[in-house]
Each structure stands twice: as C-alpha cells, then as structure tokens.
Amino acid sequence: WPVYLPRPRGFPCTALQWPVTPEIMEYGYAFLYERYQLPLYVTECGLSCNDRIYLDGQVHDADRIDFLHRYLLALRKGSERADIRGFFHWSLTDNFEWHSGYAERFGLIYVDYPTQTRIPKESAHWFAQIARENGKSYKLSALHLRQQVPNTPRPPLKIDGLAAVVTQVEAELKLLDPQSFRWLMEGLHIE
Fold first, then answer.
1. I need a surface site. Which of 45, 56, 119, 147 has the fewest CB within 10 A?
2. Please, what is the angle between helix 122-132 and helix 62-78, to 10°?
C-alpha cells in the first residue's frame, strides 16, 4: 500500500501546490519497466506556474524551465534501467483544465484568453533547444536563454475554429524552429 511521506515546510511545490519530485522519473519508470518489461513513454509531464506577460512583452517562466530540467535529468538516469522511448510535455498551450478551468497555466505557449494572442514562453524556446539536440545538453539556463530570445513583441493573432487553431500553432512553432512541429508531435526521444 502506498505510504504518504510528509514533506517539510518550504518543500518545492507548483502553483497548484503539487510537490516537485523529479526523482520519480528515475525510480518510478525503472520500477514500471522491471515489472512489465515494456517500452515506456512519458505522456504527460508539466506544471502550472503563475505565468504572465512581462513589460518586455515576453513570458519568463524560469520555474517551468527548472522543473523540466530537473525532471529530464532524472529521466535520463531512469533510462539507464528502463526502455524509455519518449517524453511529451503537458501541454503545448495554456488550456482549459478540468479541475480549475482557465485559472492554471501549464503550456509552453501563453494564451491571452480574451484576445487569443499566443506568446511562446521562455520554456518553449528552452524545450525546443533540448529537443533539437535530443537531450544531449541539459545545460541551458534561463539566463542564457534570455540572451537568445528576441525581445520583439509579436502582433496579436486572433483565431476562429479548430482548423485555424492548428494553423496558428504551426505558424507559431515555426518562429521557434522549422522542425518544432515535428518534435512536439513526436515527443523527445531519450537516449
């Protein structure tokens, strides 16, 4: 039976007060692989942050980058004992969450709900770089990233209908990298 381990005050938590426990990516997936002997995919991993548009027109989400960095490092260790085939971030864009509506922001791309403007967050650029390198370098920092991300605000883009959403997402991903849509659909392959 599961046992709850109390955590000390100040233990790192997400905006939803979920504990940040990257070690699960190491021992959890190793346990599942040892038990079932089947390839594994991380199909949903992310966190809610208190994201907002800063005065420079960008969304700086260092907490998400730190979270992903820690979880991917632990997953790399876990892949030494398990056949882990891919990693999918939750989620591409901020969205409607069943438990809290539009109050929480999980996406790599910020959505201004009233205008439907989309702004790739710093974490989107960071994750794109990690995916381009197939996880070879986990050393990018948020500070290093800020030097690479242009501080040019993007014009507001409005969308209507699901087909337009897909077209809009594809267009925004091309701002990150020509291969971006491919890596988001295929996930991050862990070697």
1. 147
2. 30
The whole-model pTM stands at 0.72
Half-sphere exposure of 83 (CA within 13 A, CB side): 7
Give alpha helix (H) positions in the chain: 24-36, 62-78, 122-132, 142-148, 162-176, 180-186
Taking the C-alpha atoms of residue 58 and residue 95, their distance in angstroms, rounded to an integer, is 18
pLDDT, tens digit only, all 191 positions of the chain: 778 778 888 999 999 999 999 999 999 999 999 999 999 999 999 999 999 999 999 999 999 999 999 999 999 889 999 999 888 999 999 999 988 999 999 999 999 999 999 999 999 999 988 888 877 765 544 334 444 444 444 443 333 333 444 444 445 545 544 444 444 444 444 44
Structure tokens at 73: 């490092």
